[in-house]
Amino acid sequence: MEDIKEAVLAVLPSLPEEKVQMLLNNLASIGVESKSDLQFIKEEDLLANITPIQCRRLLSAWQTLAVDHSDIVLSTTTEDPPSSESENTTASSSNTSRMSVNLSFWHENFSVPWNRMPPGIATAISLEKRPSAKDRREMLRILVDEMRLTEPNPSKSQCQTIAKMIVKQHPKSFADVMRDGTVICSGYGSLLTQLKTRVEHVNRGNALSRRRKPKRVSDAPEDIARGPADQYGCVRWQPNCPPGETVVGLEGKKTEMKDLYHTEGPAGAERGYVIQLMKTTYYLQRKHINACPPPSVSELKSEWPYLFIPRELYSHFNLLTDINILGKMEQAMEEKGKLILRFFQHRPAGTSADEVGRILVKYSKEEKCDPCPCVILLLMAHFKEKSEGLILQTDVWSRDIAPPPVVQRYSSWLPIIRPEMNKPFG
Fold it and tell me: What is the per-residue burial (b if ≥16 Cβ within 10 Å, else e) of 330-363?
């Protein structure tokens, strides 16, 4: 069984010894006597001992070895016995094929070169402390250089596997934790982000290493085809003209919407007909926005008045990026808002502590205040940004006047986006 054990470890070198022994016993029980019998193994024969992915890797490697073995047998029966040079060539090609099988799973067996890391990393690991920012950056450079020896542009999932492995080995030094020891999300989010950022940096300008693949195109004819995602996250930056439409026809629909806006104003956006017209003319909107030189906001508002209605603004962003911005904002605020509030409530005094304290005091006085504006103001105060540049705060409305529902929700935290802050989208 030594040959069979070698065949298993050649594909799964990190498999624990006890699992290897259990697997060998299982193979012996079903009649495997030699290495040539491995080509007849099926996935259900191995599932009791290893995971399905490990099963498929073994089966793929063993099928490749079976093909190589058959080629060698065929050549020896029809030709003269191979010389030592040809034997070396055959062995080399066999090793090459075995390496090609394992290449797609290199990140699972990746070995971190700890011996090449700066001394500060080794000291931090031995003392179970966090390394300095300088040592961590140097570690990332060495780590990415080692990864790129196998894969020039590691994917995010491959970087995630390696980041997870590092944090699992040394959680005290690399895990994302708060002061009280609470693990933040997965615990390896910051390391994953730094790894992928470094990979993108070293591949900057290298078009051959980019990972840009066209996304799935919807079968529905009325949907606008999704294009390849670029580094800004846009999937429909400048789509083609919709099937069955012409530029002249789309210009006519744009004129029709402008006339309707002059007649009915923003209320016309509630019509389903206008919603469909805005979706149909998306190609023309992007062509106008992407023009060189780019148009001003006032020109865009004059040509596409309904584009500045909140509903159509969100719809345009959804078509541009495939992201429901309102849903994402609500989800982010639900998941991260309380964490941000707790951070500022317990953070030590600093240069912006007075402004942060004033916002927190005002927030605590409001019993049913929405935390969203409070979180935004806290972040702006922390980064020393002027809140007047983004939002306007109003006084509490008079008790004699019933405020609109939106004002009732936000009370004195009512944020109003300033018109002059509007910019072309994308």
Answer: eeebeeebeebbeebeeeeeeebeebbeebbeeb
